[in-house]
Amino acid sequence: NRYLFNGKHLEQITSIGPRTVGSPENENTTVSYLLDQIEQIRSESETGPHSITVDIQRPSGCFSIGCYDRITNIAVKLQPKTSAQHFMLANCHFDSVANSPGASDDAVGCSVMLEVLHSLANLSTPLKHGVIFLFNGAEETILQASHGFITQHPWARQVRAFVNLEAAGVGGKELVFQTGPENPWLVQAYARAAVHPFATVVGQEIFQSGLIPSDTDFRIFRDFGNIPGIDLAFIENGFIYHTKYDTPGRIHTDSIQRAGDNILSVLKHLVMSDELADSSQYRHGNMVFFDLLGLTMLVYPAHVGTVINYIVAVAAVIYLSGKCLLTSSGRYMRDLVCVVCVLVLSWIFSLVTLLFVAWLVTLMGRSMFWYSHIHAAVFLYGSAAVCILLLIHTLVKNRCYRRAGRVDLAELFFDGSLLLWCFVLFFFTHRGWCSAYVPMMMVLFPLISKLLLTKLFRARGASLQYSVLYLMGLVVPYVYIMFLIRVIFEVFTPILGRSKDEIPPDIIMASLVTVATVILSSYIIHFIYLSRGTKRVLAVLGSVFMLMFVLVSCGLFFPYSADPSSPRPKRVFVQHITRSFHTLNGSLQSSDSGLCINDLDYTGMQHITPHIPQINDSISTHCQDWLSCSRQFLTSFSHCFRKSWYLPAPEVSPKAPLEVQLLSRQETQWGTVKMSFEVKGPSHMSLYLHPHAGASLSSWSFNDWNFVFYTHGLDAPVWRFWIEILVSTPQRSSCFLVFSRSSPQTCLLMRAWSLWPSLLIIYLVQTDARRRSSPS
Ligand SMILES: *[C@@H]1O[C@H](CO)[C@@H](O)[C@H](O)[C@H]1NC(C)=O
Ligand SMILES: *[C@@H]1O[C@H](CO)[C@@H](O)[C@H](O)[C@H]1NC(C)=O
Fold first, then answer.
1. What confidence tier does 536 reach under pLDDT thresholds 50, 70, 90?
2. CATH 3.40.630.10 in the chain, residue ranges
3. Endoplasmic reticulum metallopeptidase 1-like C-terminal domain: which residues (predicted)?
4. Is this model's pTM higher than 0.85 or not?
C-alpha cells in the first residue's frame, strides 16, 4: 500500500510564477494556496488519531550579513492527539529566485511535504512523536526564514532532528549529501528506511570543504539551532538551476515518487524511533555512508572505518613485503620503486600535456566547448590522456624492459598500482577523511582477486581465462568508482558555468578528465605489458584526438544551447539601475540610468558582443566604481564581480521607490557622531558604508562589516538604523549621507531594488547551425 505522490501541488505552486520574497505572489498567493491545502488535510483527518496545528510566523531579525523584517513561515505541527514532546522537522521553501518558476528549487520540496503530511495525518495508528512541517518563505535571501524559525519560533525547542529537501539541479534523484553533525542514528535511520537510497559521504566532504558555491538551510539549523539533520538535494541538470527552465515539466513523476517514498519512510521511521526522544545518548561519532548503486546502503562509524582502512592497507603492505622477501637480493624492491616512478611520471606527464591542450583551447577562444557536449571533452581530453599513458608505457616496455618476462612485468605494474593506492588510502585515513572508503575499495578488491587468482593459477601465468577472472574481480570497485565519477562530473560541469573563478574552466575540466583516466587505468594499465603491441590502439587514439582538436578549434561545439529538451543557457547577471549622485549638502548633482551587466562564466561577453555590439570591452568595468565591495564579501556576496559592463538605458521606475531620511544627528560624549536613519523602500535593499578618508565607522546597528543586506515581507514597518562615525579630521565631519562612491566626496552608498521585474537575465542561445547565437 504505497502512497502515490502525484505532484499536483507542484503544478499549482509553479503556476503562480516566480515567487520572490516580499512579492504578493510569494506572500499572498502561495501562502493562501498552502494554507488551503493544509486546511483540507486537517479537516479530512480530523477523526483520525492525529491533530494538526497551523501557525503563521512573520519573524524579523539579523544575522551574518543580512537583516529581515516580517518574512513568512508556515509551520504545521502534526502530533498524536495525546500530544508529543519530541518532533522531527521537515523543511522546504516555497520562495524562488526572480527569474525562475522554481519547480525543483524548491516547489517540489513543498509539494512532497504536503503529500507526506497528508499521508502521515491519514495513518490510522498514532505516531510516537510528532512532525513539524516548515514551509519557509525566504530561503533565496540567504536562508533568512529558517533562521527566523529556529531562533524565534516557540516550537523550535521541541525539534530534535530535521530533514531538508533542496535543489542544486533540476529533477533526477535526490542525493543525501550531508548528515549530522555527529548523531549517527540519523544516517542509520535513512539507511534502514529509505526505499531508494542515494547517498555518499564523499558529497558531504566535498560540500563542507566549500568547493560548491552554495548553501542550504542545513547550516542554519545546525549552527543556530544546534540540531542535526539530513540534507537532500536534486543534483541532476544543474545547468538550469535558478533559471526560467526550472519548470515542473522537467521533473518526472518518478523523481517525485522517489523523493516522496524516501522522505515519507524516513520520517515515519524516525518518529517511531526511541533515538528521537533522547538523541544525546546516540550522539557521538561521524559515519561513513554510501549506497551501492541504489541497491543498498552501507553505514559504519568512522572509527570502524579507520580500523578497516588500516587493516586493508597493512594487508596490502604485507602482501608486497612477502613478495619482497621471497625474491633475493632486494631486486624486487628496486623494480617496484622503478615501476612506481614510471607510473607517477606517466600521470604527471599526461596531466601536463592535458593542461597544455586546455590552455591552447582557451587561447583559441573555445573555452567551455564541452558545456553542451560533455562527450566532446571526454573524446578530446580523454583520448589525449589515454594516449599519453599508453605511449609512455609502450616506450618504457620497449626501451627499458626489453628482456624482462611479460608476465613478471605485468605483475610488477599491478603491485606498483596497489602500492600507490595504499599510499592514497593511508593519506586519506590519516587525514580522517571518511571518503577513504573509496581508496579502500580500490585496494581491497584487486588484492583479494589477485590472491585468489594466484592460488588458482599457480603456474599458468597470463591466460585469457586468468585475465577475464581478474577483470571480474575489479567489477565492484570499478563500477562504483565510475558511478562516482559520473556524479562528480554531473555536479561540477554546471558549476563551471556559474563560477567567478579566474582559473580557466578548461583547465579544471582537463584536470578532472586526467584524474578520472588515471584512476580508471590504474589496475588495467599493466595489460600493455602483456600485449604484443599498442601501435594500432595508439594510432586510433591519436587520430581521435587530432580530429577532435580540429573540430574544437573550428568552433564546431558551441558551448550553449537552446535545445528545449536540454537547454544550456549562458548565465549573465543584468541589473537595470538608476543612480543618483548627491553633493555633500544632500542636493542632487547628477543621475543616470543603465544596465549593469556581469558575466557569470569564463567566456564573458565573447559570444554576446557579436550580436549586441553595444556590450563590448570599451564599456567594461564601468559599474565597479559604484558597485564596489570589500574583499571579505567575495565569498558570501554574489553581486561582487571581477568585471562589469555598463550600458545606458531608460530610467527605472520601481513600484516602491526609495526614501531615505536622516532622523537625528548628535555628537556623543566619546567623540563620535551618531546618526539615525529611516528608510522606506522595496523588498530587497542593501547598504554599503564607505567612510571618507579621515573618518571610520566605529559601530552601527548591524554586523561587523560595513555592508548589510535587508529583506522585508509585506506590511513591514520602515527600516530604522543608526551609524556611529569616528572623525579624526574635523573639517570633514559634515559628510555622511551621500549616495554614491564615485565622486571623491562620497561616504555612503545606498542601493535598493525590487528584484521583480526590474531584474532581467539574458540568455545566449543557439538557434541553428549557421546563425550561431542570438540573444532572446
Ligand atoms: C485518507 O485520505 C483519503 C482521501 O484522500 C480518504 O478517502 C481516506 O478515508 C483516508 N484514510 C484514512 C485511514 O483516514
Ligand atoms: C562598443 O560599445 C560602445 C558603446 O556601447 C559603442 O559606441 C562602440 O561602437 C562599440 N564598439 C564596437 C567595436 O562595436
1. very high
2. 8-295
3. 567-734
4. yes
β 588-599/764-765 pair status:
unpaired
Looking up cell 542545513 gives 218
In whole angstroms, what is the distance from residue 675 CA to residue 652 CA? 29
| Cell reading at 311 | 587493516
Cβ contact 643:682 at 8 Å:
no
139 included as an active-site residue: yes
User: Looking at residue 351, what is its pLDDT?
Assistant: 97
- The cell for 563 is 535545445
Atom of ligand 1 nearest to the CA of 45: 14
What string of DSSP letters covers 471-538? Answer: HHHHHHHHHHHHHHHHHHHHHHHHHTTS---SS-HHHHHHHHHHHHHHHHHTTTTTHHHHSS--HHHH
For β-strands 659-667 and 644-648, DSSP reports them as unpaired
* Bridge partners for 575 per DSSP: 596, 759
Rounded to the nearest angstrom, the distance between the alpha carbon of 370 and the centre of ligand 2 is: 30
CB atoms within 10 A of CB 680: 16
CATH architecture for segment(s) 8-295: 3-Layer(aba) Sandwich (3.40)
Segment (H or E) for 207: helix 201-208
Is residue 48 a contact partner of residue 123, using CB atoms and an 8 Å limit? yes
Centre of ligand 2 to C-alpha 561, Å, is 26
From the CB of residue 392, how many other CB atoms can be counted at a distance below 10 Å? 19
* Contact in structure between 111 and 33 (CB atoms under 8 Å): no
Residue nearest to atom 6 of ligand 2 (CA): 614
Q: Any bridge partners for residue 678, and if so which?
A: 661, 720
Residues 144-193: tens digit of each pLDDT: 999 999 999 999 999 999 999 999 899 889 999 999 888 999 999 999 99
Residue 616 Cβ inside 6 Å of ligand 2? The answer reads yes
**pLDDT at site 769:** 26
- Report which DSSP code applies to 716: P
| CA angle at 503 for the pair 620 and 391, rounded to the nearest 5° | 140
**Whether the Cβ atoms of residue 666 and residue 673 lie closer than 8 Å to each other:** yes
Q: How far is CA 200 from CA 187, 235, 334, 757, in A?
A: 11, 13, 39, 40
Strand, coil or helix: what is 634? coil
Write out 737-771 in H/E/C secondary structure.
CCCCCCCCCCCEEEEEECHHHHEECCCEECCCCCC
User: What digits encode the pLDDT tens for the residues 639-686?
Assistant: 445 677 888 888 877 677 778 888 988 888 888 888 888 988 888 887
Whose CA is closest to 552, among 684, 378, 345, 390?
378
Q: Which three three-digit cell numbers place residue 436?
A: 577513504
Residue 614 Cβ inside 6 Å of ligand 2? The answer reads: yes
Give the 3-state secondary structure of residue 146. Answer: helix
| Numbers of helices and strands, H then E, in the chain | 20, 24
Q: Which of 27, 139, 166, 411 is catalytic?
A: 139
For the Cβ of 154 lying below 6 angstroms from any atom of ligand 2, the answer is no
Q: How does DSSP classify residue 1?
A: -
Atom 10, ligand 2: residue with shortest CA distance: 614
Instruction: Tell me how far apart the alpha carbons of residues 422 and 416 are, in angstroms, rounded to a whole number.
Output: 10
Instruction: Give residue 411's identity as a one-letter amino acid code.
Output: E
Question: Cα separations (Å) of 537 from 196, 514, 532, 533?
Answer: 41, 19, 12, 9
Please state the rounded mean pLDDT for residues 247-259.
93
* CA 588 to each of CA 109, 128, 468, 585, 727: distance values in angstroms, whole numbers, following the listed order: 48, 65, 81, 9, 25
Q: Whose CA is nearest to atom 9 of ligand 1?
A: 122
Is the Cα dihedral 210, 140, 143, 627 positive or negative?
Answer: positive
Q: Where is average pLDDT lowest: 254-263, 497-506, 637-646?
A: 637-646
Strand partners, 591: 580
